[in-house]
Amino acid sequence: MPAQHLQRDVSAPPDRSARLLTGWGGTAPTGARVLRPGTRQEAVAAVLECGARGSIPRGLGRAYGDAAQNAGGTVLDTTGLDRVLAVDAVGGTVTCEAGVSLHRLMTVLLPLGWFVPVTPGTRYVTVGGAIGADIHGKNHHLSGSFSRHVRSLELLTADGQVRTVVPGTELFDATAGGMGLTGLVLSATVELLPVETSLMAVDTERLPDLDSLLATLTASDHRHRYSVAWIDLLARGTAAGRAVLTRGDHAPLAALQGPGRAARAARSDPLAFRPGQLPPAPRTVPGGLLRGSTVSAFNKFWYHKAPRRRRGELQRLASFFHPLDGLPHWNRVYGSAGFVQWQCVVGHEHDDALRRIVRLISRRSCPSFLAVLKRFGAGDPGWLSFPAEGWTLALDIPAGLPGLADFLDLLDEEVALAGGRLYLAKDARMRPELLAGMYPRLADFRELRARLDPRGVFTSDLARRLAL
Predict the structure, then answer these.
(1) pLDDT tens digits for 149-203?
(2) How many other CB atoms sit within 10 Å of the CB of residue 89?
(3) What 3-state class would DSSP assign to 364?
(4) Residue 335 — pLDDT band, cuts 50, 70, 90?
(5) Spatial distance between the Cα atoms of 48 and 285, rounded to a whole number of angstroms
(6) How far apart are CA 70 and CA 304, in angstroms?
(7) Any idea what DSSP says for residue 334?
């Protein structure tokens, strides 16, 4: 684990400002001094001078809860570290700074015939954030999480040293999914996925209930690189858990010779990446827009609008992976109170727990129209990495829903009893006493953090809340 010490470059001080910050869910705002280093020297200076309340890295602010907040302390805005340093267009790797977004990587790499190995539901996350949250996508059942594809990274630790960290070491496993608490990722080298076009060949299927969905995913998920199900959590009775299952693969060049508008449009430039965008969501949204009755009507429309079965439809990458990115600031739809995203994973052997959770949500009439279910493959070695083999359910819930805290506590307990876990990058309120049972390597993480950073230079609202 080689290390080099960097001296402060006093000729170029980092940008300084103070502001109120929240996660993407818009809940629990806290104030912090924000530093935006643009060089390694500035990053070292920011870490060494962060003050008694410590510091935490923050990318594009897409963590839903308080993982990238630090009340009364310092937040390190990594978006100034945004250089793509090297692309190996033959071997399929990219080396870039931590503040580079997945959107930027797609723009650079797709024309060269390469795609990022893992992407979540938004491309507006940074590489540093992708490592810190060990993000997953629709391909976890085959490809694992983001850190599985990281060959090496450079980590600025609390003592001002820059360490080269590689897979198979304890510092790598603590950093992958470690929510920025082991240090500031400065750069990373990431393996890429070869593609022939910027289109997806997509199969869509409507499934009448949760049992049908689980059976279909279990029997055939391995046939597609990507799969995700939108699930109607307001449907009841025999329709409980009905879903629209979408599965896809990167379209080969030969697919562009077929009929259809998308194929014809892509023939002249098969690797073009031109995601469309709507006007941003308004800053104010009428109260009551997300009532149970409104969302129920939307869910019924969305379910019946989907085809019963459609094979091989060509879609743009952005439409398949990141439909919400087409509406900037879509989180405003939830109004000033914001929203909570709750995501769990339970093992395949505990699908009875998943059924109970779905029934509880349905009976509670939680107004969630952004609810998805996926099938995870084997977990990755990150000590606080979220994915584990099994079923993962994620849903957005308006934060102002009466009795929400007690209801989510009930769901948490169901997950804990089934040996499952919650996703720290999306958490905003779980009880700390549940954490150790969900993450068996938590004690190892705490011990390494105490040894690596005894003064608590890297900390956050999340870390204090959960005693990480």
Answers:
(1) 999 999 999 999 999 999 999 999 999 999 999 999 999 999 999 999 999 999 9
(2) 13
(3) helix
(4) confident
(5) 42
(6) 44
(7) G
Environment class of 411 (CB within 10 Å of its CB; exposed 0-12, middle 13-18, buried 19+): buried
Name which residue leads in pLDDT, 285 or 393. Answer: 393
- Mean pLDDT value across the chain: 93
Decide if pLDDT at 6 tops 90: no
Q: How many CA atoms are closer than 13 Å to the CA of 316, on its beta-carbon side?
A: 19
**Alpha-carbon torsion angle 422, 444, 189, 345, nearest 10:** -20
Are β-strands 30-36 and 74-77 bridged in parallel, bridged antiparallel, or unpaired?
parallel
- Cβ neighbors of 212 (< 8 A, separation 6 or more) are none
DSSP 76: E
Separation between Cα atoms, residue 27 and residue 244, nearest integer Å: 30
- Residue 407 CA to residue 86 CA, distance in Å, equals 48
Tell me, what DSSP letter sits at residue 378? S
Q: Does the pLDDT at position 16 exceed 80? A: no
Q: Which H or E run includes 314?
A: strand 309-316
Q: Please state, in angstroms and rounded to a whole number, the distance separating the CA atoms of residues 109 and 95.
A: 12
29 Cβ contact partners less than 8 Å away, ≥ 6 residues apart:
20, 21, 22, 69
